[in-house]
Amino acid sequence: MNKINKSIELFKEAKLHMPGGVNSPVRAFKNINGNPIFFKKAKGPHIFDADNNKYIDYIGSWGPMIMGHSHPEIVKSVSKQLQLGTSYGAPTSIESTTAKLIKKCIPSIKKIRMVNSGTEATMSAVRLARGYTKRNKIIKFDGCYHGHVDSLLIKAGSGVTTFGLPDSPGIPKELAKQTLSCEFNNKDEFLKIFNKVKGDLAAVIIEPIAGNMGFIPADKSFLKLIREKTSQNKSILIFDEVMSGFRVSLGGAQEIYKIKPDLTTLGKVIGGGLPVGAFGGRKDIMDYLAPNGPVYQAGTLSGNPLAMAAGSKLIQLLIKNNPYNALEEKANSLLIKMKQLFLENDIPLSVNAKGGMFGFFFSKNLPKNLNDVVSTNDKHFNSFLNKCIGEGIYFAPSKFEAGFISTKHTKLEINHTINVIKKILQKGI
Predict the structure, then answer these.
(1) Less Cβ crowding at N or C end of the chain, within 10 Å?
(2) What pTM did the predictor assign?
(3) For the domain 5-66+323-427, what is the CATH superfamily, name and number?
(4) 3-state secondary structure string across the chain
(5) Which residues are catalytic?
(6) Which CATH code, of 3.50.50.100, 3.90.190.20, 3.40.640.10, 3.40.50.740, is assigned to 72-321?
């Protein structure tokens, strides 16, 4: 069992300076009644904490480390840009380089705007949809987390659900009324709400592959229905691919489903581990943005050259290597064995993976929506997670988060993970 004395002391100090001792709530390990681990370096599939413990990392900074931590070509690209300056607050050619790479991989994106986070991307996409359609209402889906934007923090997943907060104080009721939330993968409920508000419906926003209530892909027929209805109604369909973009395939979830949204939001991977987000889509909609159009959006650090240097290099590596089938095989080799081990111990476990994203749930059947995830076994999850972390296996510290695997995870790391799980189960969870 790893000793984490320095992490414990660092957390005590952090709580003196930051709310809850963290800058993002899930990091506090509150849900699993644990002490967060403080890290100092990472390489390949491993991260190292303040006590010099080594962990096999199945979070990958929540997605962007798809080619492993500290990839030498990405480090080189960032270092080269670092010598030239960190930020100019002015245009650079590397912004266009990154934009062209993204457009090449995601054909639905005809024009793109770089921002600084996934939250900023979804906020801006919704504002643009409202401005373009001159309508007010938004439909989203329970458990889909689109960042901490006021109008989208309604029945959100991930950290909000982790802390038992279906909504958040601080959101005006008048604003909340403009967002309606439906059950994920529920056609009947979507149609009911859609028909009720379609006259003032600006947009429908959805994670086509949800990564914030665990890992739950949408049913294809469900997405096709949403596409059909939004097109008929001249409402904007927004795919939030901040997590799934460049993680499940080069073209994101929309490539897998063969469904073209009007707007797409991106993040994570396109910054190569540095803070970045983007939104893009149809030319006529994107040209409604300032300076071409009346919808205002801006950001001093948008298109930051360091983030663009990291992101463009990572996308180039993904185009060159196209690792998604291999990543899915790796994830499944881990998950199938995990499921078998738990079943041998009379503990139901359901698993799923697509590309480099995966999920596991302490339930007999794979969840299809947020309510299904909520009903999975908390006791088993919390005990298992804490024991894994103690043995150097770093899974996401919430059942409402997806897992991620990288090209640098080999049979060695996967077999070691399986052996640790065997050890844990022998002692009991």
Answers:
(1) N
(2) 0.93
(3) Aspartate Aminotransferase, domain 1 (3.90.1150.10)
(4) CCCCHHHHHHHHHHHHHCHHHCCCHHHHCCCCCCCCCCEEEEEECEEEECCCCEEEECCHHHCCCCCCECCHHHHHHHHHHHCCCCCCCCCCHHHHHHHHHHHHHCCCCCEEEEECCHHHHHHHHHHHHHHHHCCCEEEEECCCCCCCCHHHCCCCCCHHHHCCCCCCCCCCHHHHCCEEEECCCCHHHHHHHHHHHHHHEEEEEECCEECCCCCEECCHHHHHHHHHHHHHHCCEEEEECCCCECCCECCHHHHHHCCCCCEEEEEHHHHCCCCCEEEEECHHHHCCECCCCCECCCCCCCCCHHHHHHHHHHHHHHHHHCCHHHHHHHHHHHHHHHHHHHHHCCCCCEEEEECCEEEEECCCCCCCCHHHHHCCCHHHHHHHHHHHHHCCEECCCCCCCCEECCCCCCHHHHHHHHHHHHHHHHHCC
(5) 145, 240, 268
(6) 3.40.640.10
